[in-house]
């Protein structure tokens, strides 16, 4: 069992060393938790894609004796995030000074959220808009903290909670402060 000979030089340029090969096998075998930095780099190189079921798959053959997989679903790329990050951040504009959050942090967190939760930017923007519409301004956190923040030593995502609590067939929304 040998790695695809075209992979080694490409991965060498990643700066992650051989650790990224473990992530490739995790993707191939659909096991474990992926290293987010590896996933971001693989996506930026257009080497992975997300299926309609939300699974991350390789666009290239991992092993020398494999054919390249056929990908029918586009990859969620950083370009997708960059195209709509300002729309997302502007939802928080005017709440208070700094409420739009650090743009680079928001990009990183949005990308992570899209990959981990299998959500699109349009879905995130819609849920965020509903959350802001139904939440008292004093309780709205900054754009980056809405995606991920630490509370009492554990990571929480108000956006994930908003997705869980919002029912699109009902006008009644309920939000609990965390």
Total of domains: 2
Q: Which structural class do the helices and strands define?
A: mainly alpha
Q: Report on the biggest sheet.
A: 2 strands, antiparallel
User: Given the C-alpha coordinates, what overall shape results?
Assistant: elongated
* Number of discrete helical segments: 8
Query: Span from first to last CA?
Result: 49 Å
Helix content: 40-55%
Strand order of the largest sheet: 1-2
Oligomer: single chain
Helix and strand sequence: HHHEEHHHHEEH
| Gyration radius, rounded | 19 Å
Strand content: 5-15%
Spans of 5+ residues with little confidence (pLDDT < 50)? none
Q: Average pLDDT, to the nearest integer?
A: 83
The count of DSSP E runs of length 2 or more, i.e. the number of strands, is: 4
Give the helices and strands, then pairings.
Layout: H1 7-12, H2 19-29, H3 36-44, E1 48-50, E2 56-58, H4 78-90, H5 103-117, H6 121-133, H7 143-147, E3 149-151, E4 154-156, H8 158-165
Antiparallel strand pairs: 1-2, 3-4
Helix pairs in contact: 4-5, 4-6
Key terms:
single chain, 178 residues, two-stranded antiparallel sheet, 8 helices, mainly alpha
Can you walk me through this structure?
There is one protein chain. It is built from eight helices and four strands. It is mainly alpha-helical. It folds into two domains: 1-75, no CATH class; 78-165, no CATH class. A two-stranded antiparallel sheet has the order 1-2. A two-stranded antiparallel ribbon has the order 3-4. Strand 1 and strand 2 form a beta hairpin. Helix 4 crosses helix 5 (103-117) and helix 4 packs parallel to helix 6. The mean pLDDT is 83.
